[in-house]
Give the backbone structure.
Amino acid sequence: MDRKAVESMQQTLDRGTPGVMASYGMIGSVILLGGAGYLVDRYFGTGPWGVFGGLLTGVAIGLYQLAQILRR
């Protein structure tokens, strides 16, 4: 491959890294805390409130992580 093409591709990947990290953080926190809420509902029989609280908390944490990445 041409050296300039490889350098250009690496620069593009470096610029995209914060966006990828933000999306993984958002998806991971929603899935993890939503699953934890589901387990709380199954254990305590609290209906949809554990899942709802877990998903809401996951979105809040994901948005916080996104804000931290965008501040850099």
User: Anything to note?
Assistant: The mean pLDDT is 88.
